[in-house]
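Listing S7. Sequence submitted for prediction.
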Amino acid sequence: MVGLEQENSAVTASDILEMIAAGEDIHLTRCRISGILDLKAFFTKNLPCCIDKLHTFKEGDTDVLVLPQSLYFNSCTFENDVFFAGSWEQPESLKIVFEKDVLFNSSVFAGQTRFSNVEFRGLAGFDGCTFSRVCSFRKTVFRERAMFRTVSFEGYGLFNDALFAGDTRFANSSFSKGVNYTQAQFQSRCDFAAVYSRSKAVPVYEGVSFVRKRFGDDESFWRFIKQACQEAGYYQQAGECFYREQCAHFWQKFRGLNYEKLSTDKKLFRWIAGIRLLPELVLGRFLFGYGEKPIRVLAAGVVIILLCGLFYSSNLAHVTYRFDAQHDLSLFDGLYFSTITFTTLGLGDIYPAGSDWLTRVVTMFESLSGACLMALFVVCLSKRFSRG
């Protein structure tokens, strides 16, 4: 039963608090809401209304308020602050639990907005909203879908320590003064397609985690962070995000669309077909680092030189000196021959014996590896230092 249902009218925050305290559903469309909507008022000495119909209890020092009704605020305008949270000084003093769907689609929040330490057990809909000032979803838990598509964050956005358990959508949203995703956790699919930052503030993302990394769900997130870093001039961070974006893109190609809905046989076929991506996995990701890990290429070259040098100085290899009949190389001579072979320098003072095919094969492998790795190393350096 809807306790408060109005359209194109003026509503006060006190009216909304009374309906919330009565446990009644609220359906408002294109309404203007005046006054500060602050649920901390339910736990003050002078209660604005009786909350006996609501479930309240204590979790340590935290007051927990469970709201059993659905709240629909479609295309509404909140003229003042909206607080479904504790104070800034004690954010964990109050926890709000929404048991049913909560929709604020296309609404405008003219003042500060706080949903900190809140648990959404149903749909959390904020599509098309405008947050004119700072909005906080710090330590908020989204059990079901979290919809933030085409949202305009005019103030700073706080999503640090938030838990997104269901599908999450931030597509086509914009941030004017930055956003904080520190320690945020995404446990299901997420979409950050076409999200952009309108300022030079780089999003904060330390400790952000994606449970479904092997599905590539984090690709659009890292693309958003990469673009923001590039525009702000943080090219090294942009390179790191590019690497993570490409890793996620690899897993998307490997599993393909609708992987979870496939039968076991079709999933097995996808894995078998994924063998075609093995060169990209080994060379592109692990060795080359998609052009962002030059140290890996350098380390691979050093390892090949050392291993081949040990081989040339062992009894398995047979080499010939141009001016000496000696065939056994010392460790230093083996490393010397390995280095000039890897760099394709080939001075000719030492060369494989004509009758030893194994040494010739190792020499060919090392020279080809050297030519490729040196080229990759130059590409990595030029890519990193020419960015921007």
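Caption to Listing S7: primary sequence and predicted structure tokens for the chain studied. The chain has a mean pLDDT of 89. Residues 26 and 162 are 26 Å apart (CA to CA).
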